[in-house]
Amino acid sequence: MSQSENAAVRGLMQFLHSSPTAFHAVENLRQMLLAEGFTELPESARWALKPGGAYFTTRNGSSILAFRIGTDLSEPSFSLTASHSDSPCFKIKENAELRVRDRYVQLNTEGYGGMICSTWLDRPLGVAGRVLVRQKTEAGERYETRLLDFGRDLVMIPNVAIHMNRKINDGFTFNKQIDMVPLFGSGKLEKGAFRRMVAAELGVDEADIMGSDLFLYNRMAPTVWGAENEYVSAGCLDDLECAYGTLRGFLRGKHEKSIQVWCCFDNEEVGSGTKQGADSTMLEDVLRRIAGGLGFDDEDYRCMTARSFMLSCDNAHAVHPNHPEKTDATNCTYMNEGIVIKGHAGQKYTSDAVSVALFRGVCEKAGVPVQFFANRSDENGGSTLGNIAMAHVSMNTVDLGLPQLAMHSSYETAGVKDLGYLEEASAAFYSTHFTANGQGCFRAE
């Protein structure tokens, strides 16, 4: 691992370690943008934009969009990357405590997204998320969002001993309401102990906790490993690795003839159909406000999007060393061998000849290797946020990602070189201005 690779991966590991939930991830990304001089624009206020400006806005505290405006807007277009902030996990229900024979206290949870359940068993888990706290003032009641992370091993989901489940190694179906409920404490705890613990951690009265979105997370720290330190493992690599890598590229790359936009949406793992998801109006709202704020009308906006290009960035499946047969024979990918371009005949991915060609050109100029992924023709694969977002704002889009193992495990693995490839490609992409003549011809400058 080179010195630059080491620095990039160490930065990623620190980011992941401090981002146990989408809310924490977006706050960390927000701080990175503020440190680079970006101006925060609340959605609820009017925006005053100017060429050369750098701005960002958030929604729900779990989605964030940043943009930088060029100074030569004679033929403007948007250059976008999109990733997502959420990962499969377990959410704590409102009435959290469950008692078992007056000897145990569990926390009642439900699954968020399609996780690999077995990876959550027999390991220390933390609790983190956001809490809405009421504050009484002379002007009335104020509701403040507070981030919470107990920062310690708090709960665990114990396996059933093999003596009581002899078929565990022959295949087992986990029931999330029975098998995946975490142990919190002994029956000696008084009723409401968890809620009181939340209040004490935040330094507020229990009665002033008005709402919460709290989740379990894997407490195992990120690590670099392998014979030549070629692999990195951590929770939430899918998709915070892409969010972090594209943001680093966004902060480096710029072109005065375009408007560079960096997006990180929430709720991709549950379909994106929320006010802060890729299937919401958020992207269209922001792009229209940018165009309008710069003096362009609706016709100008439509011309701008027709000239625009987006990279939909969500991690991809590497060939599994134990099961190489799970992937296509020729369109398969390996860690540390470059960015993955994903294609699908049924359009679960947005990549087509146009978007693939444009992105390959960007990567060639940046000296970044690319790989191609397609599902086996007899297997269904997952989808991502590109085609969902494009139902609201249509433009040329390519689906890509970084190769990884154990996607949707609580602890995933990727290659240390690939993060640098994504950063370099993103910087080159944002430094390129794309135009189209409507006759199948495109220009990248």
Overview of this protein structure:
The structure is a single chain. This protein has 445 residues and is of the alpha/beta class. The strands form 5 sheets. A 9-stranded mixed beta sheet has the order 1-2-3-13-4-14-18-16-17, with helices on both faces. It has 2 domains: 3-87 and 235-444, Zn peptidases (Aminopeptidase, 3-Layer(aba) Sandwich), CATH 3.40.630; 90-218, Aminopeptidase i, Domain 2 (Roll). Strand 19 (403-405) and strand 20 form a beta hairpin. It contains 9 helices and 22 strands.
Give the low-confidence spans.
Answer: none
Briefly, what CATH class of the largest domain? Alpha Beta
**Structural category:** alpha/beta
- Compute the average pLDDT: 96
Could you tell me how far the N terminus lies from the C terminus, measured between alpha carbons in angstroms? 33 Å
Rg (C-alpha, Å): 23 Å
What's the total helix number?
Answer: 9
CATH superfamily placement of the largest domain: Zn peptidases
Which percent range describes the beta-strand content?
25-35%
Helix content: 10-25%
The biggest beta sheet is recorded as: 9 strands, mixed
